[in-house]
Amino acid sequence: MDRIMAIARKHQLMVIEDCAHAVETEYRGIKAGTFGDFGCFSFYVTKNVVAGEGGMIVGRDAELVARARTLALHGMSKDAWHRFSDKGYKHYQVVECGFKYNMMDLQAAIGLHQLARVEQNWLRRRALWEMYGQALSGLPLVLPTPPEPQTRHALHLYTVRIGNTGTSPDRDTFLDNMNALGIGTGVHYQSVAEHPYYRERFGWDPDQWPNARAIGQQTVSLPISSRLTDSELQRVAEAVTQALAC
Ligand SMILES: Cc1ncc(COP(=O)(O)O)c(C=O)c1O
User: Fold this and answer.
1) 204-207 contacts, C-beta under 8 A, 24 or more apart
2) Which of 49, 56, 51, 53 lies closest to 109 in space, CA to CA?
3) For ligand 1, atom 8: residue with the closest CA
4) Which end of the chain has the lower number of beta carbons within 10 A, N or C?
5) Single GO molecular-function term (predicted)?
């Protein structure tokens, strides 16, 4: 972030941080999402605060935040809640060509109550992270890189690399093997240039970014959630051992 912010300052650029996975993340004691002009968090079902869909923008400039709020609801000057308050009906005006990007109050009510559990869920994931490290050590895979000093990792995705040692199956075979053993896995992510849209729209070729391509073809996310029990984690670890052997 130091380097990104230096570039932004030099060229007077606005920085919008994608911190979809990073509610808990800090760098030198500063929270992800608060370095730049805006930070965007996701509350989709796979995230650490879940509202079903939706997310949250944080920003440092009150006027820009107000504009984001207006744009998120049809470009209307007052949202529906304020139009129908106890103070009586208030006219609104359409002041911009906006979007329908508002999160429902119902979703917010679900998400709000999870904020109090963010820390205890993170501590549980940290314990699971360590257990995975012990259970998987010695297997032909690459474990997640330890977090750098002065950082707080969100510990959101437990990603390992498979298929780069020559003694294990390739990643996609491993995914199939895990599925056959009844364990769900994920891929975060294939490289951007492998997706047809980017190849067709921008003429990108995955070979232009061989490291991104290699990681996209080798990465696997194993189940991690504060709800995972110790014995479930052991079952995943045993499945990984079997899936690597076939
Ligand atoms: C890094 C990253 N950014 C953004 C998003 C999109 O979040 P949302 O689905 O809330 O738009 C995701 C979703 O997984 C993500 O992983």
Assistant:
1) none
2) 51
3) 42
4) C
5) pyridoxal phosphate binding
Domain around 77: 2-113
Together in a domain, 80 and 139: no
Q: CA 101, CA 240: separation in Å to the nearest integer?
A: 40
If one counts every other C-beta atom within 10 angstroms of the C-beta of residue 110, the result is 15
Tell whether the model's pLDDT for residue 141 goes beyond 90: yes
Cα 138 to middle of ligand 1, angstroms: 33
- Residue 59 neighbours by CB under 8 Å, 6+ apart: 37, 38, 39, 65, 68
Distance 11 CA to ligand 1 centre (A): 27
Query: Can you give the CATH number for the domain in which 48 is found?
Result: 3.40.640.10
Q: Which of 81, 113, 145 is the last residue of a domain?
A: 113
> Which segment of 22-26, 80-84, 105-109 scores lowest on mean pLDDT?
80-84
Statement to judge: residues 122 and 109 lie in one domain: no
What is the C-alpha to C-alpha distance for residues 87 and 79, in angstroms, rounded to an integer? 14
pLDDT tens column, 186-227: 999 999 999 999 999 999 999 999 999 999 999 999 999 999
Same structural domain for residues 70 and 137? no
State the Cα–Cα distance between residues 160 and 187, nearest whole angstrom.
Answer: 10
CA distances from residue 198 to 205, 209, 210, 219, 237 in whole angstroms, order as listed? 9, 13, 16, 21, 36
What's the number of domains the chain is made of? Answer: 2
- Identify whether the C-beta of residue 31 lies closer than 8 Å to the C-beta of residue 22: no
Cβ(193) to ligand 1 under 6 A? no
Query: Per the structure block, which two tokens stand in for 195?
Result: 């997706």
